[in-house]
Amino acid sequence: MMHQLLLSDPGNSVRMRLLWKSLDKMRCLRKRSTIPFLGFLITFLLFLNLYIEDGYVLEGDKRQLREPSVHPPSSERYAHTFRDLSNFSGAINVTYRYLAGTPLNRKKFLTIGLSSVKRKRGNYLLETIKSIFDQSSYEELKEIVVVVHLADFDLVWCENVVQEITRKFAHHIIAGRLLVIQAPEEFYPSLDGLKRNYNDPEDRVRFRSKQNVDYAFLLNFCTNLSHFYMMLEDDVRCSRNFLTALKKVITSREGSYWVMMEFSKLGYIGKLYHSKDLPRLAHFLLMFYQEMPCDWLLIHFRGLLAQKDVIRFKPSLFQHMGYYSSYKGVENKLKDDEFEEDSIDIPDNPPASIYTNINVFENYDATKAYSTVDEYFWGKPPSTGDFFVIVFNKSTKISKIKIATGSDDRQNDFLHHGALEVGEKLVGTKKGKQCSSYITLGEFKNGNIEVQDVDHKISFDIECVRIVVTASQKEWLIIRSISLWTTQPPSQ
Known about the structure:
alpha+beta
């Protein structure tokens, strides 16, 4: 009902025309005003979206390769595209070509999306697909679908790649685990005369702008295939049983809010989303396709949907393996130094609040010790009885705890004397929630502690993990990392 009113109300039509008129004017703004204006525009669109019902915009028909279709004239087609963008929750109207495979009726657990174009040097797509399947068990394969978007406009190249894929992965295609698609060139917005933000050369701007659209069309296609979506690049190697590790992390985060979780620190690799968020992300990339590279837009999208902090897990589950970039074939030997081939046993720190009475130095606050990014807690010299406590959002079973203090740069800033405790019976205090009952698991040695089989040693579900200073020290204290492994329910 609401979307009908919005479409029929002349006032809304006038407002939308003014919005797109402002977009045209934006192209003429001076470069230094681009970012402030972009921030304002993004915020405006998100508020606009709060008043628009999710149901608007018809799904595009998805037809087989070479099936004849009649597309509207260019001006009419782009008018429809702009109307689509007024609703970040509707599907983008694109007629996809199926190059290999067709979707199954049953939703899978995870879709893995790859976008690939012709490279001047090197081609890693087949190796990437092989790694995904080879590193998955038979049971894991039942829960994934891989979607490859061949996004190059060279149809001869696309045809050759499809032949290679179907020859090497025929059984996965037949089983519905592998789909190869293409969004026709006529559905792309203009890639000429784009804004040269950040003084990028024109060919670089064209490359990254088209890449944003490539990913937008891929995300749009994958919306209803599974419950979760993993973004990968087409030159990636996977760790063994990566899906099991992902499921463990997702389970430990149940009941907490997140938009994007990261399983690699590089580019577009290993970014996990709820599939329900894909329409918004697809529209977001398409709306701002010429503004900045995709990885920057992903950060803005995460922040605008109220996930303030990076949620990244180590060791990384995916590794960049290409030596030559898809942009001009330039060398790109970037590697993720946190990748491990066997990463099934990754820590999955459950959501929690962090409290300490140790004086914090500058912005090295307590949450950074529990974070999965490369940051740490740094406090002034602690005294006997000082504490650092982690209070879980909900009680949980913990199998392993590993804590490291100090750093290579400041080797004396470690915990000289301390104990590790776990607690239950949560109560409220003036300084926040605390557990009223604790059991000591062990003492720190040389600033570190690791306790295995915690769930076998403790009979209760843990609500707090606490570090207690058992003797004062003159040196400052760095808590470099706190890693927790949860115990999965028997059904997992």
